[in-house]
Amino acid sequence: MTDTLLSYLNTLWLIVLVVLFFNIMIFVHELGHFLAGKWRGAYIDRFQIWFGKPIWQKKWRGVQWGLGWIPAGGFVSLPQMADMQSVEGAADIPADLKPLKPLDKVIIAAAGPLFSLLLAYVFAVVVWGVGKPSGELATTTIGFVAPASPAAEAGLLPGDRITAVDAVPVHKWMGNMEGVRELVAMSEGERIAFDIERPLPEGGVQAQRVLCGFVLPETQWWQRGGLRQVGISPAAPMVVGSLLPHSPAEKAGLVPGERVVRVNGKPVYSPAALAAMAEVGEPLLLELETAAGARRTVEVMPELPANWRGREGARAVLGFRWDAGQMPLQLEHPTPQQQVNQSLKWMGDTLAKVAAPGSSVGMEHLSGPVGIGHYLYRMLQAPEGWKLILWFAVVLNVNLAVLNILPLPVVDGGHVVLGTAELLLRRPVEGKVLDWVQNAFVALLLAFFAFVTLKDVGDLVPSGAEPAELPAPVFSES
Which member of 158, 260, 340, 400 lies 3.0 to 4.6 Å from 116 by CB, making a disulfide possible if both were Cys? Predict the structure, then answer.
């Protein structure tokens, strides 16, 4: 009971941290508008975090400070900028309020994205100092090819080292949207080109190009569509860990620390490959190597655990755990400008894939506050998660700055365009036309927000298609 309560409290605390994190970003962005407005002598009616009717508000020094009930964004109400009642609600406008100069409007509008970008640099300096945990997997060697998968049909084999995907060189399996997994998921066209180096029996390697199809995992209508997969997984260490009591591995005399080199006379590169062989339920001849380099051969008969019989997904196993090793956490220290440049590249690459007609990436794969919040929540649960959060803050603030400076109605970039047009034309844009455009864009923005929120929530709801998780295997003594 105590453990359950502590788990709930920990979850609640993580959620509170995620909400505070979002609000800091929003506050700093809106603070840019607020301070620029004060500097340029603008009338400021409200400073509100989140939209909708305030659930808390307080008047201080002529400005109403508040917290809305719709947890998305925030605003500083500046009636002299443009009519924003459709988004911010009616403002209390003094009767003698004079219009702002066009240059003042441009400065005030641009200040929000500028402050978001400055906040990104602040976080980037901290990340530069404390380091960013590396989530990369350095290998590009294929460890397992799923039977009947597109990769198997194309002729890819375990042991093949991938050097490029669609002519883009790769040096890792995943990480920074530059690995094998990401390039496969974001590929375009009907076939994915893999440049590989295949080990030859007589030694050396053979370079070749393999054209491979792909599959899109099935999802429910309320979930995001699956991204491209070809049915390959990376090579991984094959070191025997702890043995389960009365298991086939224990009966055969396997020793923790030994490395599995070959199975039935063939090289093996991945625990997934050995698990697939064990499922068949036939004897396996394992060639093992000790840390000192000595080799021996052992026959093991896979067995169905006693407590798995009759359960969905039950299969024969060898009965030992793999030793992942005590790998120290790797920290990177990219410079602030490298972090900002990487964030801009990710954003550009993602939007390019969304727009590309031959890509499987669509608008549904973009995330709203719920999806981003869930991602932050998972980061906080990881080792050194606070360092991941700092790094992700750079990405989010760069995205916030760029999206808000785009020349679109309602957002800051739209106000910059209006102020610039007024500066050049020496008269403000027609009010009725502006109202129509802004209301139409607000409707589109709300529809998109509802769409991505549906997908964000849908991804958190189990589809019912996942098989039930099997308990820890238990073997009988016989």
Answer: 400
Q: Which residues lie closer than 8 Å to 192 by C-beta, 6 or more apart? A: 165, 166, 184, 211, 212, 213, 214, 228, 230
pLDDT band at 87 (very low <50, low <70, confident <90, very high): low
Query: What's the pLDDT tens digit per position in 252-306?
Result: 999 999 999 999 999 999 999 999 999 999 999 999 999 888 999 999 999 999 9
**Residue 176: Cβ-neighbour burial (10 angstroms; 0-12, 13-18, 19+):** middle
Residue 118 shares a structural domain with residue 105: yes
Residues 47 and 144 placed together within one structural domain of the fold: no
Q: How far apart are CA 277 and CA 269, in angstroms?
A: 13
CB within 8 Å of 422: residues ≥ 6 apart: 102, 105, 428, 429
Q: Are 49 and 68 in contact (CB under 8 A)?
A: yes
Same domain for 176 and 260: no
User: What pLDDT shows up at residue 159?
Assistant: 95
| Measured distance CA(72)–CA(370) in Å, rounded | 10
Three-point CA angle 139, 142, 146, nearest 5°: 145
Does residue 333 share a domain with residue 187?
A: yes
Tokens of 425: 């034309």
Regarding whether 141 and 123 lie in a shared domain, the answer is no
Total-model pTM: 0.85
My answer on whether 316 and 171 are in the same domain is no
Q: Which amino acid is at 185?
A: A
Tokens of 451: 């769409």
Return the minimum-mean-pLDDT range out of 70-84, 107-121, 122-136, 338-352.
70-84
384 is catalytic: no
Query: Would you mind telling me the total number of residues written for the chain in this entry?
Result: 478
Residue 273 in contact with residue 279, Cβ under 8 Å?
no
Looking at residue 93, the DSSP 8-state letter turns out to be: -
* Rounded Cα distance, 11 and 297, in Å: 48
Q: Are residues 114 and 193 in the same domain?
A: no
Tokens of 96: 């003698």
- Residue 229: Cβ within 10 Å count: 17
Note down the domain range covering 16. Answer: 1-130
